[in-house]
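Hi V.,

You were right to ask for the full record rather than a summary. Here it is.
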Amino acid sequence: MKDKLTERERNILLKITELYIKEGEPVGSRTLQKTYGLPFSPATIRNVMADLEDKGYLYQPHTSAGRIPTDEGLKVYINSLFLALGNRDETLVGRLIDYLKSEGVSDRDEILARVLDFLQSLTGYVGFGINLVENLTVESITLVKVASDKVLMVINFRPDYVLHRVIRASIPEGELQRLSRTLTQKFRGKSLKEVKRELVEEIDGLRREISELSFRLNAQILKSLNEVNHLEIHGTANLVNIVSDDIRRMKEILEILEEKNLFLEILRKFLGEKREVSVILGSETNIEPFSSFSFVLGKYRVGFKNSGVIGVIGPKRMDYSQVIPVVENVARALSIILEK
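Predicted structure:
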């Protein structure tokens, strides 16, 4: 546990961090005193900076250079920004709602994709999000013919989630009703996890029995269920602007984002927190390639339950005072849109 900060130490730490984020250079006592007009001499500021270094909030990258914040110091600065959260940016919320209306999207997953496009273009960082639905149980499965070789599959889950996909299958109209009843009876009340396991087992058996229609239908249902809790990542090209001087690191990060499981664990951990908006430093993930990055996360809701997470991945030295309110208000706008 870090030593408690005095008011003077906290004030100087926040200003050093703010200036470092803005300039990207170690901050010296004289520069700090002149920039903010502090009522202390440079010598006094140097003493405070030395104390902050001893306590683990600052470090000196080079002898005779100024100081920069450690991750612990950066967290103090970030936590101070949370005190200003809750201010509604109605202009930003209105812009996003108007944008989605102009795009004419209504499907939940498609709405998320458009929101992430909006978020990554607004911040210049990588946007990510997930419609994270847990503990779903099947209520009904309905198959409806929409073309000679296409069927609309609608799976109603409890609580309050609907999955619909068009699948390729040539099934007679009358047979669709029978299949709908059979599938509903078979899977009603079962969890997403249970349905997936049964479908995998059944598909393995059907491979041996060569029942082509059932095999294809079960495979399509399984594919659609695997898309529930699908992680969307937009703007990976923005990584070039963040780590253009480290191709190896960029390749490692892209591989992690492609694989996604490690990233999903970060999001699930955040969902367990009380905060609606949070910042996770790369060092806190224990994933080395992310050490020079930060995640700004925001929850969105439908009704009273968490429905998912959106956010951005950017450099650790990002302008949190701008990015945190953007993520907060985009998450708020998404909640409003999904409620309608």
